[in-house]
Amino acid sequence: MVDTKKDVSTIAEFKAEYDRTSELKAFDETEAGVKGLVDSGVTEIPRMFHHPSDNDFEEIYVSSGDSQISVPLIDLGGLITKDPVKRKEIVERVREAAENWGFFQIVNHGIPESVLEEMKVGIRRFHEQETEVKKEYYTRDPTKPVFYHSNFDLYSWISTNWRDTFICRMAPNPPKPEDLPIACRDILIEYSKQVMEVGILLFELISEALGLNPNQLNEIDCAEGLTVLCHYYPACPQPKLTMGTTKHTDNGFLTVLLQDNIGGLQVLHDNKWIDVSPQPGTLVVNIGDLLQASLISNERFTSVRHKVLANRVGPRVSVASFFSTGSIPTSKLYGPIKELLSEGNPPKYRETTVRDYVLHFDSKGLGRTSALDDFKL
C-alpha cells in the first residue's frame, strides 16, 4: 500500500518544479495528442510527461523471460462440447486466477482472429488520420458517447501518460453508426457485438466460480454497459522518463483487453511486476474494482494494479472493453451479494451506485491510492 502522506508530499514537490498548468493547456489546445508531438519531430519529451520515482520500493520487476511466473492462460474451447466436467475445470481455473491474480488470458473465446486483427488495424487507422479529421471528436466532456483525447486525468494528475485514446460507449445505448468515425466504424460495431458475447460468458463463469447461479451476475446487469477504449501509444524517444499508462486498477466490473504484439503491459503479482506477453488470438481479462468489492466478492476476488510501459518501438495499439454502466445516471445500488456474506464474513464495503464510484475514481486520477479505500466500512 502506498503511504498517502508520502504520496501527497511527492506530488507537491513534483508540481513545484515548473509551470505545469501552462504546459498542459498548450498541449491540450493543439487537440493533436501525443501523436501530434511525435509528428512534430520531438526528440526530448516535454516536462509534463516526466514521471516521479516510484514510491513503492517493495515492488520489483521480473521479466517473464527470467521467471517461471506468468499470467494464467485459460482455454475456453472445452465449453463448445457442453461437457459439464470440462466446464467445471474451466470454472475452477477462472476462480484460481481471479483470486490469486485478478488477471488471466483466454484463448478459443469465439472471436475470430481476423476480427481481432481488423480491430487493431481500424484503431490504428483512426489515430493516424490527419489531425484536422480527428479534431471533430476531440473533447474533455466524458458524457459524450464518442470522443477522443489524451489522458482523461490530464489536469488532475502530476504527470501525463504517453498515450492517446478514442472512446466509444457501445452499450446499453450505442451511438448511431453515422456518429462513429468511418476509419473504424464497421469493425468497431462488429467487435463490440462479439466482445459483449464474451463478456456475458465470462460473467457466467465468474458467477459459478463464486458458487452462484450462472446467470446471477448478468441478471444484476454486470454486462449491461460496455465502453470501448482504443489506446494508441506512439514510439517514445525517452521511454524511461515516462509511462504509457500509470499503475492503476480498473473502476468497472470486468475488462477485456485486446493488445497488439508490441508488449508493455505489466501486472503486479506478489509485489513483482510481471509481463503480460502478447500472444496471437489471445484476450486479456482482469477483475475490476466493482467486482472485487462493492459488487459481489467482498474481496474474495482481487482487482490488481497494472501499468503499461512506454517504448521506443511503436506505435502500440490496444483495445480495452470495460463492462460498466458508469456513464449512466442510475439509483441502483451495488454491494456484496448476500449469499456470499456470513457472520464471519461481513460486508467490507458500503453500497454505491456505479456512477458515483466511477466519478470518485476519475476525480482521483490514475496512480494514486485505491479509490476503493474510500468506500470501506
From TrEMBL:
One of its GO terms (molecular function) is metal ion binding. It holds the Pfam family 2OG-FeII_Oxy. SUPFAM superfamilies: Clavaminate synthase-like. The keyword Nucleotide-binding does not apply. Residues 224-326 form the Fe2OG dioxygenase domain. The keyword Disulfide bond does not apply. Signal peptide: none annotated. Keywords: Iron, Metal-binding, Oxidoreductase. Its cofactor is Fe cation. Belongs to the iron/ascorbate-dependent oxidoreductase family. This is 1-aminocyclopropane-1-carboxylate oxidase-3-like protein. It comes from Morus notabilis.
